[in-house]
Write a structure and sequence with these properties.
53% helix, mainly alpha, single chain, 107 residues
């Protein structure tokens, strides 16, 4: 009985952490995210080094799916940004996605 109770408590904790992270994603600073995107992402995603990348290349749902599993983001080994910065970059990309109310006009 005690083992089942511990398992239930651990499951609830994991569920709580997952849900809280999902709600936290996207509350970043889009303006700062644009700066960080240009500084950290555009240096490689310029069409020469890596595939050209713009916020309008994906829908909001696609950006969410990409950032939900960070292993999908294959950047160079020296690419290190804090979780807060990643959230800001996500907010910028999500807010200017091709299906957003104000999609990015750059390509």
């Amino acid at each position: 009985m005690q083992r089942k109770l511990m398992l239930l408590a651990a499951s609830a904790l994991v569920m709580f952490m997952t849900v809280s992270m999902a709600f936290a994603l996207g509350d970043g600073n889009g303006r700062k995210g644009k700066f960080l995107y240009r500084k950290n992402c555009r240096t490689c995603h310029n069409g020469a080094t890596a595939k050209d990348l713009s916020p309008a290349d994906m829908t909001q749902a696609e950006w969410k799916a990409t950032f939900a599993d960070m292993s999908k983001i294959k950047c160079s080994g020296d690419w290190t940004v804090s979780e807060e910065d990643v959230n800001d970059i996500f907010t910028y990309l999500h807010d200017y996605a091709k299906d957003s109310p104000s999609p990015a006009k750059c390509s």
